[in-house]
Input
Amino acid sequence: MSIGKLFLTSVLTGIVTQEELIWIAINQLNFSRCEHVMALKLADLVDSGQIQLG
Output
């Protein structure tokens, strides 16, 4: 899995699963700067309600 694919899938479906969020939390220390920005953007979308937890 990659954060880019996860981000795009979540934006398309409007859903991110708990397993995907756990994966992000476990792997965040290995993210590049760009991947870190995508993870933060995904978190912002969840916080704003544009992406639901599934």
Remarks:
- The chain has a mean pLDDT of 95.
- The two ends are 18 Å apart (CA to CA).
